[in-house]
Each structure stands twice: as structure tokens, then as C-alpha cells.
Amino acid sequence: MAKIEIQIDDEILTEAKKVLHSLGMDFEMAVSVYLRRIALEKGLPMTMTRVVSKRIEKDITGDFEENFDDNTRVSTRTNSRITTAMVDEVWQVFLRYCRGSGEIKQLSLEVSTRTGMNQGSAFIYLTVLANLVNGDPNTRVLKYMDLEYLMGKIQDELGESIYQKALKSLMASVSYWREKIPGAFADKVEAYCRKHS
What CATH number does the domain containing 46 carry? Predict the structure, then answer.
């Protein structure tokens, strides 16, 4: 095993450690995941841009109001807790789950190892997706923009009948979310369902 020594600004290191701790990771684990992704992708595992997204990320358990200027899905987020690449990896792993290749707990660990996504978040995303395609209500939530994106994936890749089940799942979940989740998340989901029903 190689040993790496790097110099990091104290403030950046302190902030990074806080974020990593919230994700259930330590600094060494995060660097290892980052280097693995570089090796797998043959490049940096992030989009490098000059313009920072105006979308303000909130914690998955926090307020689900989202602030952005348009409805387009962006690949760069101001706080990369859950990135577009992570959501795309969740989708690819979910397709394997649909084909009977693995259980959600095991697959969430795989997503976490490959992308650095918190395993608990990966588990929630995969569970929500499973409930959607089965037409079952959800008590957990995704970031609204990710939910909308994944609903599009369901429609495009799994077909209209499964998409209709997913819409029913969302509508069955709205009353619970309205009562339990602060902000306008339930209202956004309800408006989405009305628009697409």
C-alpha cells in the first residue's frame, strides 16, 4: 500500500471532515473513494465548470424547498452531497435490482463504494424507487429534482404502465409527506402528478 502526504488548508480540511463525518466516512476513506473513481472513469469524477450552479443544496433530511432559476437538471451542484453521477449510478444499480440481481441493502453498499454516496442515502433512493415501480406509498423522500429526474427515467426506460404505477405511488405518499416533511415538497409532488396524469 502506498502512503500519501498532502498539505491542505486547515479551514478546508475542517469543513471537509465535517461533511465526511455526516456521510459516515473518514478522510482516508474519502480519498480512497476519490482515487478509485479517477481510476474507473479515467478522469476526474466530477464536472469541471467555471459557472457555479445557482441551485442551493439542502440536506436530505432538511427543508425540501429548493432554490433554482430554471427547471433544468444541472450536473454541478453547489454542495456535492448527492451528485448527478451518484443518482445515475443509483439508477443503473436499480435496473439490476429490477432484473433480480441483488438486494437493496447490498446494492446500496455497492453504490456507496463506487461513488462515495452515503450508504444510507443510497438505500433510501433505491427503496423509494422500488416502492415507485411497485405502486407502493413512500415515507422516505428524495430531493425533488432527483425524484423528477428518476420519474423521467422510469417513464423512458421502464415504460408507461410502470410510470403510471409510480404516479399512483407518489399520489398515495403526498398526504404523509404533507404532514411530516417541512416545506413545499408534497405540493411539488402533487403538482407533478396532476401535470403528468
Answer: 1.10.1220
Q: What range defines the domain where residue 6 resides?
A: 1-52
Whether 2 maps to a domain, the answer reads: yes
Judge if 110 and 187 occupy the same domain. Answer: yes
Residues 35 and 105 in one domain: no
In a domain, 65, yes or no: no
How far is the CA of 18 from the CAs of 11, 23, 57, 161, in angstroms?
11, 9, 16, 43
Nearest to 162 by CA among 94, 111, 110: 94
User: What letter would DSSP give residue 56?
Assistant: B
From residue 23, alpha-carbon distances to 70, 91, 117, 175 in Å are: 29, 20, 8, 29
pTM of the model: 0.61
Please list the pLDDT of the chain residue by residue as tens digits (197 residues): 788 888 888 888 888 888 887 777 788 888 888 888 888 777 777 765 444 333 433 333 343 333 333 433 333 333 447 899 999 999 999 999 999 988 999 999 999 999 999 899 999 999 999 999 999 999 998 999 999 999 999 999 999 999 999 999 999 999 999 998 888 999 999 999 999 98
